[in-house]
Structures are given as structure tokens and as C-alpha cells.
Amino acid sequence: MMRYTLHDISVLVLLISAMLCSSCATIISGTTADIHIDGKVDEPLTVVTTHGEYQDLSLPATVKVKRRSLDGQHIQISSPSYAFSDIVLRKSVNPWSVLDAFLYGVPLVVDLMTNAASVPAQNRFYVTPDAPRSQADSLHRADSLRLVKAAEEVRQAQQLARQLPERYNRHEIRGGLGFGHCQASHDRDRMIDANIQRYSILAEGECFDIVGDSYLQAGVEYHYRLNRKWDVGVLADWGISREGYSSYYYQSVHADPVTADPEYFADANEQCRFFVFAPSLRYTWSERRYYRSYSRIALGAMRHHLTFDYKRFPWVGYHPDEASYTAQIPVFTDSTDEIKWRMAYQLTAIGFSFGSQSFSFFGELGYGSLGVVRLGACFMF
């Protein structure tokens, strides 16, 4: 039966809290933007924005617009006696989101989710009537045709810039390798530290031992694209950690290690393995024909198997690496063997994939059961 420890719950709460509370742009700017309108108009106006409708406004006035899809938004203005052209907004980068980009990526992800990463390039406008209301019908018909044509041109330009086909592959299978500290490292480190203190042993530091006792990870994933923005799927990941330890015991604690022979030699080995299975939800921030950026969250279960074997041999004058030495019968043995179930999680702050519509390479930065850095390849069909 899977058990959730206080450590697992606290780590997850801290990670979610960081995503919700560590964004400067979101906290300071919010999800709406203010637009200031002024002009020489002698009657009340009605202004319609993406945030709502404002009636009986006297200029100057301030209205709000939503930050989502800020570029190209229209603000419609009307009055009983005059017709006005729409105000068309353009977007710029919020300076606060630039600061968030240096905070490990998570605050920037929050800004993108709340649309606080964008601000209006211009937030003050001066308006004048285009024509009296008596000419409004013909003027509005002309404006409608112009706006429809302009919207179609913008759509075609955006489609050409994206160069995304109308039909796209919805199934994705990927394989990847994880590197760096991961969720399973906590239990393993506690077990190793306890045995190091108990037996006074040290890591052997073998030649070409690049990763030490860090986990080597490999996994597979399947994702199904619901649309251009959202994917659902599952992931399975395996990890293994191995490291050797040794120490020498002298008859006297004051013995000189250079001249005196030890009385005993100790040999120890750590081997830990884990398996993770978790549903995954992924959101695409930006996509081009050969490029895609996204974030992901996954919650599931982890089975963690931890073992630590300790053996003590009498010193016989041989080098401990020689086969004749390790063939001896140990005078003392001890071992740790336990299986722990944990809630598995993965928060990918930012991920990128590069390639064709059928095959691409990817890289991810985040934290959880998949490690800090993850690299691999994916096949779409």
C-alpha cells in the first residue's frame, strides 16, 4: 500500500507554493491592464473591451483589458451622435517578467499562465470622432469589411509565420535519460549517511566514477494531443544508483596509517533502484514547424528499493581489489534492505523539442522523479 510521508507532502506544497507565489510580474501587474483614453468629445461614450463594457464614460477615462491575446485586441468606442474607429492594441514584454526569468524558470511559467508577461506597448490614446452618426451606417459597413479583411490578412500572416499544417500528429512516444538530483535521492542519501556514520566508511572514488552515487535514469512516455495546447499521457521511469565504500581498522586509534598495518578491512556497497509510474499533463506555450516549448506536471506512484551491504575482513596484507582478498570469509556482515512507496511527482518548468513533425529531440528543466535535466528523443504519428 502506498504511503505518503510528511516529507513528500511538504515538498509538493513548497513547489506548488513557489509556482503560485514567487512571480513578481503576476503579483505586481495582475491579469488585466489599464488603458487611458482622452479626447475632445462633448457627450458620454460607450467603450467595449475584452474585460467588459463601460457605459456613460466622460473623457478622460480609464478602462481595463485582459492580457490574454493582447496583441491585436480591439477597443470599440461609440456615442449617440458620433462614430469612432477602434483602438487596436499592441503588446510588449513586461519588465518584471524579465526578472522572473532568472528565478529558476518557475515564476516565468506562472507569468505565462496568468498572461502577466505581456503589457500594452501603448496605454494612452487620444480619440476624435470619425464622422457624425448620420453617416454611421455606411461608415460601419465599410469598417466591417475593412476589419474582416484585416483579420483575414492577420490570420494568414500568423499561419504563414507558424507554418503549422492544419492536420498534425496526435500520438507521441518518447524515451529519455534523466540527470541530477531527483525525488528518490532523499531516501537514498539518508540511508547512506546513516551507514557512513555507523561504520565510519568512505566512498572509494574509483577511476572514471563520474556520477558517483547519483541515479542513472531512463524512461518512456506516451502523450496524446487533445489540441494544439494540451496533451495528456503517462510516463514510466527507472533509476539505479550504485556506489562502493571501504575503510581500514587499526589495533590502536593512534596508529600511523603509513607505517602500521590495519587489523581489519571493511567493504560496503550501496545499490538502490526505483520505478515510477505517473499520469502527465502538458501545456504548449509556443509552437513552430520545427520547434515547440512546453511545461508539464505529473503525479503518480514510486516504488523505491534500497539495499546496503557491509562486510568486514581480517587484514592479510593483500590489496583489497585483488580477487584473493575478497574471496575470504568475512568476520562480520550487516545489510539494509527495504522497499518504500512514495507519491511521485514531476514539475517541468520549461521543455523544448526540435525536429520534424514525425521525429524530434527534446530537453527539459525541472524537478521531481525525472531529475533536474532530461534529454531524449520522441516519435510522433
Explain how this protein is built.
The two termini are 37 Å apart. Strand 18 and strand 19 form a beta hairpin. Helix 1 packs across helix 4 (106-114). The protein is of the alpha+beta class and 381 residues long. It has helices at residues 6-21, 24-29, 95-100, 106-114, 136-162, 185-199, 323-326, and strands spanning 32-39, 45-48, 53-57, 61-66, 74-78, 82-83, 87-88, 91-93, 118-120, 124-127, 131-132, 171-179, 202-203, 216-225, 230-249, 264-288, 291-314, 332-355, 359-368, 373-380. The strands form five sheets. It has an eight-stranded antiparallel β-barrel with strand order 12-14-15-16-17-18-19-20. A four-stranded antiparallel β-sheet has the order 3-2-5-7, with no helix packed on it. A three-stranded mixed β-sheet has the order 4-1-10, with no helix packed on it. 22% of the residues lie in helices and 46% in strands. The protein contains seven helices and 20 strands.
Q: Please summarize the sheet with the most strands.
A: 8 strands, antiparallel, barrel
Number of strands: 20
Secondary-structure-derived class: alpha+beta
Give the proportion of residues in helices. 10-25%
Low-confidence stretches: none
Assess the beta-strand content as a share of residues: over 45%
- For the residues shown, what is the average pLDDT? 79
Strand order of the largest sheet: 12-14-15-16-17-18-19-20
Give the radius of gyration. 31 Å
Give the CA-CA distance, first to last residue: 37 Å
